[in-house]
Automatic annotation (TrEMBL), chain A:
PANTHER family: HEMOGLOBIN FAMILY MEMBER, HEMOGLOBIN SUBUNIT ALPHA. The gene is Hbaa. InterPro entries: Globin, Globin-like_sf, Globin/Proto, Hemoglobin_a-typ, Hemoglobin_oxygen_transport, Hemoglobin_pi. It comes from Calyptomena viridis (Lesser green broadbill). This is HBA protein. The keyword Transport applies. It comes from the Eukaryota.
Automatic annotation (TrEMBL), chain B:
This is Hemoglobin subunit beta. The keyword Transport applies. GO terms for cellular component: blood microparticle; haptoglobin-hemoglobin complex; hemoglobin complex. SUPFAM superfamilies: Globin-like. Residues 3-147 form the Globin domain. Keywords: Heme, Iron, Metal-binding, Oxygen transport, Transport. One of its GO terms (biological process) is hydrogen peroxide catabolic process. One of its GO terms (molecular function) is organic acid binding. It comes from Calyptomena viridis.
Amino acid sequence: MVLSGNDKTNVKGIFAKIGGHADDYGAETLERMFVTYPQTKTYFPHFDMAKGSAQIKAHGKKVAAALVEAVNHIDDIAGALSKLSDLHAQKLRVDPVNFKLLGQCFLVVVATHNPAALTPEVHASLDKFLCAVGSVLTAKYR
Amino acid sequence: MVHWSAEEKQLIASVWGKVSVEECGAEALARLLIVYPWTQRFFDNFGNLSSPTAIVGNPKVRAHGKKVLTSFGEAIKNLENLKATYSKLSELHCDKLHVDPENFRLLGDILIIVLAAHFGKDFTPSCQATWQKLVGVVAHALAHKYH
């Protein structure tokens, strides 16, 4: 799966709209993921899962920053996220299915906050981008 | 048998009550065909699916989307008895339509995005969780008679 020129434009465009809210989007994505797919909480047994938890906020910020980094280096996502890819392969070992679940929740957050901006074409591009990020993060698993 | 709490039933009913089955169905099916283009394989006779614009404007897509979501409404009326409700439809999708059940999951995920865009902040995490559960259960029921 390859990101076309249009895809890259669409992804950069939607992230420009998200702008300074990326951290909040990250936190909300995690919150939704933990509620919708409780099995994802197994990777965070040490987290306070209450609404507004400082740990979820902090982790959401990290996740958002990684996505923004990928957008800023969209021509070489593998290069941009190489260290994160190592981390997931060697230490975190999050099962690959979970990246799809995170992606779905991120799309939901974008949809709830920017319905007009999430046209079918942008939706397709963003979904592809999130798949690409997931692929990069699991690329070195075995 | 799947258990639905009173809260879940309420969240399902309150969302469904505000949904235009025709609009929502059309949009969900169009987005499925656009976001996951390989799903177009089932719709060779739908005419022009050559671009997102063509897909969104395609009257057969709109009509079929409405049909699909109308059927979803039946599921909502029969939450306690989904497998029976969808028994014949399941056989149809297996024996005649030859649809990989993975496609039901894809459509379910798309429907969630359409609802999220429509309801905004009202589509709370609990709402999303309940509806994600519902689309999962519907997909499972539709796949149940596969052999």
